Amino acid sequence: MHIGLIGGIGVAATVVYYQRLVARASERGAARLDLTFAHGDIQELIGNNLADRREEQALAFLPLARRLKDAGCSCFALTSLGAHFCAAELARIAPLPMVSGVAPLDSYFASRGVRKVGLLGTRVVMRTRLYGQLARTEALALDEEIEFLGQMYQEVAVAGVCSAEQRAAFIDAGRRMMARGAEAIVLAGTDLNLAFDGQDPGYPVIDALDVHVGLLADLAADRISIEAATGKADDLSPGA
């Protein structure tokens, strides 16, 4: 299966997608990994995301999706959960099936008995509770700090690095959501690995990037069909 990735949104997240996808595909016994990247514009994405210009961003992604099709890809994915704010609009016009990084999450949480999660990510992800796509899982965020946490996440994504102070702020935000009843903290921003990788925050952490990568790795190893990856979320989890 030849998979296309729209990356660069941001660069650090794209690198992690690449690293983890190579590792997961190998674990699943993929004979080879056919992978093509197209580079997106993070500043354009940030501007459209903040202004909720979904159609405009979908049109900005469209030439990249076409480029991936021309390269021989059978499907594509966005290496940013924040970019999924225009996922529905993009899926309608894209020349290839799009493998969502958000759709599988609800089933993933439910399959592990997690009933309530705390969210860290972009302003829109936190404000909309993962774009309203959680049906079986309750989500919470620190509503009074969405602007602060969202701006900090944006700065980390653009810079591709996370300072000690930013890391401490993210980890503390997770701790406070746990105190409000969350059973796990979801890294619903693909650059949050810069803050949490190698850390022990003292509470359960679920990296949404890993759920998405697990699904893509299953595709790469021909363990599931494109139809299953794009139309059914049940039992699609990393390591399954």
Supply the helix-strand structural class. alpha/beta
Largest sheet: 4 strands, parallel
CATH architecture of the largest domain: 3-Layer(aba) Sandwich
> What Rg do the Cα atoms give?
17 Å
Low-confidence stretches: 232-240
Pfam families: Asp_Glu_race
GO molecular function: amino-acid racemase activity
Protein name: Aspartate/glutamate racemase family protein
Organism: Alsobacter soli
Your description of this structure?
By secondary structure, this protein is an alpha/beta fold. It folds into two domains: 2-100 and 210-231, Rossmann fold (3-Layer(aba) Sandwich), CATH 3.40.50.1860; 105-208, Rossmann fold (3-Layer(aba) Sandwich), CATH 3.40.50.1860. Helix content is 48%, strand content 13%. The protein has helices at residues 11-27, 42-50, 54-70, 87-93, 105-111, 123-127, 146-159, 164-179, 193-196, 208-220, 226-231, and strands spanning 2-7, 34-39, 75-78, 116-120, 138-140, 184-187, 205-207. It has a four-stranded parallel beta sheet with strand order 5-4-6-7. Strands 2-1-3 form a three-stranded parallel beta sheet, with helices on both faces. Strand 1, helix 1 and strand 2 (34-39) form a beta-alpha-beta unit. Residues 232-240 have low confidence and may be disordered. It comes from Alsobacter soli.
Question: What is this structure's SSE topology?
Answer:
Elements: E1 2-7, H1 11-27, E2 34-39, H2 42-50, H3 54-70, E3 75-78, H4 87-93, H5 105-111, E4 116-120, H6 123-127, E5 138-140, H7 146-159, H8 164-179, E6 184-187, H9 193-196, E7 205-207, H10 208-220, H11 226-231
Parallel strand pairs: 1-2, 1-3, 4-5, 4-6, 6-7
Protein name: Aspartate/glutamate racemase family protein
Organism: Alsobacter soli
Pfam families: Asp_Glu_race
